[in-house]
Specification:
The protein contains 5 helices and 6 strands; from the N terminus they run E-H-E-H-E-H-E-H-E-E-H. By secondary structure, the chain is of the alpha/beta class. Helix 1 crosses helix 5.
């Protein structure tokens, strides 16, 4: 499976929202995700499965990407992608999917970097996945834990340069 991991865009401060789950993208965050999603188009990305954390900033990020790549695929909220989500439960869910598929996960740090580290066999690995950053992993297995090969890690700066 080609697993794409996307960190949500810049979100407002938690003092503005009543709680963390309601924090939305800032104007700058929305603009940056619009620009970044043009790189998705340029790279020809489309996904068989799309999962997002149910938190507002991730849902907004996913909506922007899906609109720009003109995907008609359904987006599913997945509690396992919350910041406090259970990675083993996430891997179990992913293991049920078609193995030659392309899957997008949209979530939070440091949770996403931990997934990348586990996938490449480096649990103490420190990856700085910027807001709007995208990782591609060619997965080998999900049980009992994720294993795979890091194919690329794109920063928002890289992706903005792609669409120019």
């Amino acid at each position: 499976m080609d697993l794409f991991i996307l960190r949500h865009g810049e979100a407002g401060k938690s003092s503005i929202a009543r709680n963390d789950s309601q924090r939305t993208l800032t104007v700058a965050g929305k603009q940056e995700m619009e620009e970044i999603s043009k790189a998705f188009v340029k790279l020809g990305l489309d996904f068989d499965y799309v999962f997002t954390s149910p938190l507002a900033r991730c849902k907004q990020t996913t909506e922007i990407v899906m609109k720009n790549i003109k995907s008609k695929n359904n987006v599913q909220d997945l509690n396992e992608l919350r910041p406090e989500g259970n990675k083993l439960e996430l891997y179990n869910e992913l293991s049920k999917l078609r193995q030659n598929s392309s899957t997008l996960l949209v979530g939070h740090e440091p949770y996403l970097s931990e997934i990348v580290g586990e996938a490449i066999g480096e649990t103490n690995c420190r990856i700085d996945l910027k807001k709007g950053g995208l990782v591609r992993i060619k997965t080998i297995s999900f049980q009992p834990k994720i294993r795979g090969e890091l194919r690329w890690l794109l920063t928002p700066k890289h992706m903005r340069k792609l669409f120019k």
